[in-house]
Predict the structure.
Amino acid sequence: MEKLFNKPLQVNMRCKDCEDRKANIIVTIVLQQTTSSVHKTGLLLRLTDDADPYFLFSLSISEEDFQSLKVQQGLLITFNEFPQKFIDLLNLCKQESDSDNPRFLLQLSQSPVLDSSADFSVVETNAFKRLNHLTLRLLQGSDTDIKKHLAVCLSSMKEEKHSFEEKLKKTEDELGYALQKLSDKTRELDKLRAEWSSQEKTISSHYSQDLVSEREKALGIQTRLQKQNEDLRQDLESAHKITIHQLQTRLAELENSNRELTERKYKSESTIRDLQIKLVGAEEEAQRAKQQVLSLRRENGTLDTECHEKERLVSQLQMRTAVLDQEVKDKDQLMCRTKELLEATQQQKDSIDGNSGKLEETVKLLSADIIKANEIIKKIMGENQKLSNKNKMKNIVTVEQEKALLKTEEELLKFTKNLENAQQQLKHKDEQVSKLKEQMETTMQKLNESKELLKTNENVINWLNKQLNEKLLPRKQPSPESFETPSVLPTAAGLRAHFYPMSGKPGMSPMEAINVIPIEQHPIHIANKQSGELVGLDSKYFERRDDSIPLHGLLPNLQNRELPQRPSNSKHTSSAFFTG
């Protein structure tokens, strides 16, 4: 036996003597083996209720029973497919049971005739009607069947109880083992915490000594880095002068290119204006041509309508002429008959003379009418030919005007394309001008920064010159030995300024005259050996002149001038203001 389905489902219970109610019924479907040699498998359906132990309805379906059920209820499936499809219907009913208006529901109605049977059906409700998908006639279990079912349930409950007791014992054993492990792990954790605290203390003491040594190393590195920074600063100043000169040349080139671009822009704008004027003229000509074409098309339409009317009149006159021709033919036949009568009745001339005169008069009248109709037809045909010629001329004129309009439209398209190309070129030029402006702004910013640096350098030079003169003027005859000047910049600790005496060359800049080195390395002689006079900076470097040389003029002069020769005993000298 194989249990395919065993779930509680909500079932509408219908009974004759009691009210309808809903109950949770356990539906069980079992695939069982049969004793028949032909059909080995069968299907068992059982309905039970946990609240009512005497509630038992069952039905066993073999393949033969299913064939009769298939014929009765119009099923389209085989016996092998029936269990799965029936289970799918039950699952749909279970899903729809929670909604207020379920689409699929189960219904159990006891038969009014036989109290021991009940109809178990799967019903689908829609807006129109209720559809009964499947109805099975279940038999109520007898006392022996109920006893067997209860015995099976009791044995299964005992087995479940036994399995649950075994699981409970296993869980209790596992829980005791887990508690013992937990206590062991807590002891290990306490030990680890104590070891960690002791190790932390030893590591902190060890690393505190390392930290002190590292700090000392950092101070040494800091002093070394300060020296390197001073060297770098000197290199950067020289490189900065070179870059300033390059930027000035670049700025001149950019200004020239900017002028050329602005001239090109003005030229392109003038060409765009001319093209716009031409475009406006071409558009006006195109509009005029369109208006002329519209007027000619209207005239052509009116002429077409007139031509149609004339053709209609011609057709009417042709019909009239055809009718008149027919009448003439009839008259001819009458004339023939009358001639025959005249020939036959020559003997009665006297009596028929009056009648023949009358007939001749009628023939003359008819011939005059035919002549008039022919003249009218000729006039109408001439008018139609004139109208057709006029239409042909107008069609030729309209075709020529349409060709001229197409040419003007093509020229207008060419003008628009040229205008778009000129606008794109103008946009490209504007972008280039904006980029050049941005580059010029950046170069101007760099130039202003370099000017500010130059001003600060000039101020430092002036201040150093003043300090040098103040120190040198009070002393009349300094010894040829080296002397030590006080600290030039009090804020920079550990830095002292030393200067070389001027060589007496006129027009030498302060940058060439001053060189600063440490005191401990190079002694400097400030007295002139030949004359014994005090030597200092010229007074022209102390005055602030209005016609001072700007940055772009000063830098090339500084680069082109020769530096003074230093004493031969100086081993380590630098061209900047300070050294570390």
